Amino acid sequence: MPNEDLLITERCGSLGNSIKYTRQGQNGITRREVTQESVANSLLQTVAGFFREVLLPHGYPDSVSEDYFEYQLWDTVQAFCSTITGIFTTQAILKGVGVGSAEASALSATITWIMKDGTGMVGRIIFAWWKGSALDCNCKKWRLFADLLNDGAMILELCIPNFSHLSTEILCMSTAMKSVVGIAGSATRASITNHQAVKGNMAEISAKDGSQETLVNLVASFTGIFLINYFSDATTQWIVTFLLIILHLYSNYQAVTALIFKNLNNLRMTLVLKSYLVVNAVLGPERINKMESVLLGFGTDVEQFCGFRIILGRPLRGTLSLYNSDEVKSLANVYKNRKYLLVPDLKKRAIYVAFEQGESSQDVITAYYNAVLLGLATCMYNNVTLDIYSKRQLHHSTPITRLSTFMKSYHHSLDRLNNIPPQLLLTFNEFVDQELEMFFTALHVNGKLLFNNDAL
User: Fold this and answer.
1) Torsion angles phi and psi, residue 354, rounded to 5
2) What is the total count of domains within the chain?
3) Mind listing the pLDDT tens digit for each residue in 376-411?
4) In a domain? residue 12
5) Measured between alpha carbons, how far is 256 from 45 in angstroms, rounded to an integer?
6) What range(s) does the Protein root UVB sensitive/RUS domain occupy (predicted)?
7) CA–CA distance from 67 to each of 110, 169, 207 (Å)?
8) Do 139 and 270 fall into the same domain?
9) 385 within some domain
10) For residue 93, which of 178, 165, 182, 167 has the smallest C-alpha distance?
């Protein structure tokens, strides 16, 4: 219609069809859906649109984070494998507690089940108390760890038919492991959902994730019924389960490494600072997340390049005992205009950071970077060699080269380690202020990373 008078073009999301509203006659309006698809393709589009509405958040992909599809794809694969493996373990558990055996007692099976559930309840309470505060900041690590632990619990349950006399003990142990999986899995899933909800649609994303998981579990359940009948031999079932566990772990690893968090936790902050100190540039979220370790106990440690552990929010009662009252007063005077206090402990090679009440996210980042610079300066003051010195750009201005130049005029005897004197710390704070201004500029311009004081 070359001569049509177009009034408005409407499109629902980036994947929806375009609808054109044109003038008809003098004051009439005509609505026309724009499509060039064949009948077969149109039917396919209709079916795809139906499943998109049922399973994906409204406005997808604009209403979710850029890593949503890849994460959900691998999460679907791992859920499929986990459900089928769970069917094999359920069969093993029922055999182990005597289902189908004439010698089995209903009372003993009931007691076993009660003890199993009770162990799981206690395990959930203990784990939530012990590690609850670490689940947000190390979301990827705990997510992967939960699935590793879940597979370990399933392997134990598969062994029950061979050790039926220990079925109660094995079930209690596997249930305790699964209780950790339940807490860690649900808590980290909530953190991931919050990350994916870029339009304030966290509840909808959580609901649609539940729908996706239900559909996957339904399909996997029917698949599991077929497999458990087709592979009735115990050895074959072990082989199939082993292959499923490998695929389950691989898909979980791919899922967590697909996540691109834009907030700063301890490890991501360490990676940002390590690159910034050496090359004077902040890496983007994609690079930082790819460099981040997803295994508990692994990853770049801030002590490796600044010589000190940085400990935030820890009580100072043990550390302040190393100082006399005059030294504490001098230390407080050094940081009187800041919303935090840095207390070095040379013996433990740690810098403790205490905050004023009501600190902001930027205050936490500021204190962390200040503590790293203080650790580096203290090492330079005491002539302690660090690996990061050898990586500095000698002919390029970086925080390390600027700090090295600043500390050259200050010398200290080598008989023992000493803290930087308060008078020097006051001058050092002026240097830190300049560095902080440059760091925050680089962080905003180049890094596109968000501040999050809960993560550190």
Assistant:
1) -110, 140
2) 3
3) 999 999 888 888 876 655 567 899 999 998 988 886
4) yes
5) 31
6) 45-277
7) 45, 41, 18
8) no
9) yes
10) 167
Contact 45, 37 (CB under 8 A): yes
Closest CA to 168 of 118, 125, 126: 118
Range of the domain at 379: 266-446
**Residue 144 near residue 294, CB atoms below 8 Å:** yes
Give the model confidence (pLDDT) of 97-141 as tens digits: 766 555 556 777 778 778 888 998 999 999 999 988 888 889 999
Q: Are 344 and 309 in contact (CB under 8 A)?
A: no
Of 258, 287, 311, the residue that ends a domain is 258
Burial 143-167 (b: 16+ CB within 10 A, else e): bbbbbbbbbbbbbbbbbbbeeeeeb
Q: Is the peptide bond before 422 cis (omega within 30 degrees of 0)?
A: no
User: Domain containing 249 — which CATH number?
Assistant: 1.20.1250.20
Same domain for 280 and 244, yes or no, is: no
Tokens, residue 42 = 């149109």
Judge if 189 and 338 occupy the same domain: no
How far is Cα 223 from Cα 219, in angstroms, rounded to an integer?
6
Tell me the average pLDDT of the chain. 87
pLDDT at residue 78 is higher than 90: yes
The answer to the question of residue 346 being in a domain is yes
Task: Report how far Cα 220 is from the mean position of its chain's Cα atoms.
Answer: 27
Query: Does residue 389 sit within a domain?
Result: yes
Tell me the per-residue pLDDT of 166-195, one tens digit each, with 9 for 90 and over.
888 999 999 999 999 999 999 999 999 999
User: Which CA distances in Å does 346 have to 171, 306, 371, 411?
Assistant: 48, 13, 13, 17
> Do residues 364 and 326 share a domain?
yes
Could you tell me how far CA 190 lies from the centroid of its own chain?
11
Which residue do the tokens 């207390």 mark? 343
Q: Which residues pair with 22 in a beta bridge?
A: 6, 30
